[in-house]
Model the fold of this input.
Amino acid sequence: MDKLQAIRGIAFDLDGTLVDSAPGLTSAVDNALYALELPVAGEERVITWIGNGADVLMERALTWARQERATLRAAMGKPSVDDHDIPQDEQLRILRKLFDRYYAEAAEEGSFLFPAVADTLGALHAKGLPLALVTNKPTPFVAPLLDALDIAKYFTVVIGGDDVQNKKPHPEPLLLVAEKLSLAPAELLLSAIRAMIFRRPKRQAAALLV
Done:
């Protein structure tokens, strides 16, 4: 039997699949970096860091910003490290808190549905197919954003980054979706930027690249 014929539910990723969230994320990242007197990254660079949750996003941003600042200081004949720098771990902790604050202000205005997303979700929902949202985005930001974009009504299950111990690409979020929808993992189709490959056949969920 065709594997697609066994599909009884669809799980969607959010950032980069349904929503262009780069403007809002970039605003939050750059404002957080600027607050710590670090170089700002810009959207083209921030886009390459998106996809593995806010913690990883800020780790990547801080690593780049510290390297960029060291390069700039070296070009001016200054030591690469400022004697007044706080430890990197502490800097990362502060940066993440700043990101959350700035993203709360920028998430809705800086996020936009990709073309035809609303119509596609509406058509699938009308057919009675259960839809789920699985994102690494911090959970407190997810529901307000879905409401602002007027797509919350289409999802039976919503899993944010704080709802699981292991974020995507670990299979835990999709296994949780399958459990909540009372589906076998192989009956769940994932629509995401990249296919999530699960190594254990008994826990394998179908994946679709879009």
User: Anything to note?
Assistant: The domain at 9-18+114-197 is CATH 3.40.50.1000 (Rossmann fold). The longest strand covers residues 188-192. Helices lie at 22-35, 43-47, 54-75, 88-106, 117-126, 139-148, 172-180. The mean pLDDT is 89.
